[in-house]
Amino acid sequence: MIRVQNEDFDVGAELKSLTDGNHQIGGLTSFVGLVRDLAGGQSVSAMTLEHYPGMTEKQLAGIEEEAHRRWPLEASLIIHRHGRLEPGDRIVLVACASAHREVAFEACHFLIDWLKTKAPFWKLEGMPDGDKWVDSKSSDDDAAARWAKG
Amino acid sequence: MKLLYFAWVRTKTGTGEETVSPPDSVHDVAGLIEWLKLRSSGGADAFSDPSLIRVAVNQDYVELDHPVIASDEIAFFPPVTGG
Known about the structure:
- The complex is a heterodimer.
- Chain A has helices at 11-19, 55-70, 101-118, 138-145, and strands at 2-5, 27-34, 38-39, 42-43, 46-51, 73-81, 83-85, 90-98, 121-127, 130-133.
- By secondary structure, chain A is an alpha+beta fold.
- Chain A has one domain (2-136): Aldehyde Oxidoreductase, domain 3, CATH 3.90.1170.
- The longest helix of chain A is centred in the last third of the chain and has 18 residues, at 101-118.
- Chain A is globular.
- The two termini of chain A are 27 Å apart.
- In chain B, β3 (54-57) and β4 form a beta hairpin.
- Chain B has a 5-stranded mixed sheet.
- Chain B is built from 3 helices and 5 strands.
- Chain B has a single domain (2-77), classed as Beta-grasp domain (Ubiquitin-like (UB roll), Roll).
- Chain B has helices spanning 7-13, 29-39, 41-46; strands spanning 2-5, 17-19, 54-57, 60-62, 73-77.
């Protein structure tokens, strides 16, 4: 399941509803990304996330389908926020449920790594000397490349 | 064709969305970028280094040699930074 939304989410409630009623699930992992108050040595007062409505949902759904092709998942969830956020705010939730923990850990790691290089979101950070678009990191490309099939 | 711009590509072109009718000589993404560079100062600024631009046609990532047709939705943006 994927959701793209402006509003915050309740991690506990989301994880509970993801696993409710499915007793095949023995392991549940989650990753939560938060807005930090520091970037490149400068303080960040706010972050605005722009995205490409339509393509965002299409790409996230494709990434989730790929995870289900690779691992025997019982359930999965991606929630990504957009709009104006402040330090400490939640940005993204990725959760994976499976019979066993190894699958849940691996699939969750895969989802966040692939999401970072494929989902069309862009971060604009509010800095003391003005707003600045965040540059993509080669370390994120490297993290995603680990999961390439070859 | 419908063009969409995001993040700093949008701020440089000065618009988030426009409908254009390029000449028949434009038949792929690379040709479209060259045409957009000549068309306006904002286009010249946004596409001054095409290696910094990512492209999606009808919401799927494509390379510069991907064909473009009048009914396409084509988006230009920097490398993504979500998550």
